[in-house]
Amino acid sequence: MPMDIDALLKSLEASGLATRIRDSVYLFPMIESTHVIGLALVFGTIAIIDLRLLGLASTHRSFQRMASDILKWTWAAFVLTVLTGSLMFTTNAAVYYHNLFFRTKMLLLALSGINMLFFELTAGRTIHRWDQAPSAPRAARAVAALSLAMWIGIICMGRLIGFTTSRAAAAPTPPAGVNFDDFLQGTPSDNGTQTTPAQHK
Amino acid sequence: MVKQFAEWLSTTSPSVFIQNHNGWVIPTIQSIHIIGIAVVLGSVFMIYLRILGWAGMDQTLRQTTSRFGPWLTGGLYLMLATGVLMVIGEPVRELVTFSFWLKMFLVAVSTVFAAAFQVSLRKHEQRWEETLIKRRSIQGLAILTFLIWVCIIILGRLIAYDHIWGPWSPATKA
């Protein structure tokens, strides 16, 4: 029920936590910076694994060894981005929820989860056979290439959210599928700084 | 001085071009800059983990730096290129801030650290692998330099929020 969702989003925005973040000069920028540090570690470490699968880097190392060395840090950093992302979401929930780039980003995140699951169900089951090989089987290489592309997409969508949810851009809900230049023109390039006072009822 | 330069820069044709296409040019450049951050932070992270003995212990320190060093350098060049474009595109927003100049100072410090480490490792490879890497002081230094990279990222984001520095920010005086 869209009504229920809107009510939920509004109550999120009105929560003590969201209000506290909005009212603080420091909290939102610090949460956003932590989000950037987290995503840099997520993408940086995932790229190391993907390049190994593709046979483009670290080709002489055991895949298993690399995965067990690195992926725990990836997950820790991912948890950090989810926490900081959720905190940012609460401050302006209704606007983010209806934002096209936010939705695309969530879709890409879900797809990269499915992509990972696909790896586990295919090449992930036969690691012992290709662990030392310079590149992984075809299915795993496809997963790795898709993963790199989707994470780059996630980063670009994330940045665009900051350009389209600021006060000026947020007021009218922009229609989907318009010319990209029109869509963004006139929005201050200040990356969502002013999401705070936007009370768009 | 800086403000005048920034204002002059904003009248030059490359800057005007970016301003006229700011709808997609600036977000694209910023996204590439963030991908650069991921490459740089990911690379230094792996080298620090190896120094601390928390990952990559099947590799020597030298193997680890030859794997990630070139990516670190490449990532830094990517960030320099996209960073210069962002300054050209929005000179006043970038240059007339406290965050930007503190960030540049820390970038210079980190780059000197990274270069000194590379040179020292090449010269005293055996000593690094056998004794230096186990020293508490070296491990402390590794954590410290990682924290400098973290501060650089925070300051980069704070360029958009320079008012939080209060009287230290030249932007608030404008």
Classify the beta-strand content of chain B into a percent band.
under 5%
Shape of chain A: elongated
Please compute the radius of gyration of chain B using only Cα atoms: 19 Å
Q: Name the beta content range of chain A.
A: under 5%
Query: What distance separates the N and C termini of chain B?
Result: 13 Å
Oligomeric category: heterodimer
What is the C-alpha radius of gyration of chain A, as a whole number of Å?
Answer: 20 Å
Number of helices of chain A: 10
Helix content of chain A: over 70%
- Tell me the count of domains of chain B: 1
Total strand count of chain B, please? Answer: 0
Biggest interface, residues from each chain: A-B, 44 and 38 residues
Identify low-pLDDT runs of chain B: none
Number of domains of chain A: 1
Detail the poorly predicted runs of chain A: 167-178, 182-201
Descriptive account of the structure:
- The complex is a heterodimer of chains A (201) and B (174).
- Chain A is mainly α.
- Chain A has one domain.
- Helix content of chain A is 73%, strand content 0%.
- Chain A has ten helices and no strands.
- The C terminus of chain A is likely disordered.
- With 174 residues, chain B is mostly helical.
- Chain B has one domain.
- Helices cover 79% and strands 0% of the residues of chain B.
- Chain B is elongated.
- The chains are: A mainly alpha (201), B mainly alpha (174).
- Chains A and B meet through helix 3, helix 4, helix 8 and helix 10 of A and helix 3 and helix 8 of B.
